Amino acid sequence: MGDLVGMRPEISAVVDAWWAGIFGCPVEELWRPGIHLSPHHGLGDYSGIYVLAHAATCRISAPAAVLPQLAEIPNRRPASALFTAELWREFLGGRVQVVHGPSEHFYLGSTADLPPPVEVDEVPPSALEPLRIACGEGEWGESGFPANGSAEAACTFGLWRAGTLVAAANLTPWRDRPSDIGLLTHPAHRGRGYGFALAGTVARLAVESAGIARYRALSSNTPSLRVARRLRFTGYGRNLAVRLTPGDGATPPRG
Known about the structure:
Elements: H1 9-23, E1 34-39, E2 48-54, E3 57-62, H2 85-92, E4 96-108, E5 121-122, H3 125-142, E6 155-161, E7 164-174, E8 177-185, H4 194-210, E9 213-218, H5 222-230, E10 234-244
Parallel strand pairs: 1-3, 8-9
Antiparallel strand pairs: 2-3, 2-10, 4-9, 4-10, 5-6, 6-7, 7-8
């Protein structure tokens, strides 16, 4: 199994069980060293490839019809090449529509080290629109807000200063509970601790209601990664999602 340093064993067990369900393997086999290919199990009919790596393990989930084209992947070294768009375009050519990631995954199972909560409000869809425009569609989508700009997240919270929405966060379902944190800070108000304060408050809500909070950020998003680490989230793997064509209308799984 994995090693969630500083977290209770029961929280580590929850995370491992969830990932084992995604890849359709026994939980005791999940982190067996090496590169492992498998057909989609927990990802249903997702029209793409999903890569997860942690420590010495890399797991790849793909549509069954694509697996023969990936037979040589486990022989590739270094394994870090699996997290480059170039490798997937080399193996699949024009079938690669877009590559999402790599992204880092973090988990938190206690509120003990979180900062004191700040006052937040639920945010109506109309109030989110200026933030979406200011940040752009790329940052908006990475933060877990729906691409069409509506407030479809399970819970959406905002931090206001002088009548301006300076940061917003969402809690979307993970394990059927609102515990997956998305965070976005207005570009004109970054570097002032607003994102950190809001993320800490929302993380507290997630842990208190669901027992665990999850946080994800692009490996290139240094400020977002810094927020997760300052809040004492435990880093636990990274992923890459490769969406394939044709007929791949599915969005990459946010897991």
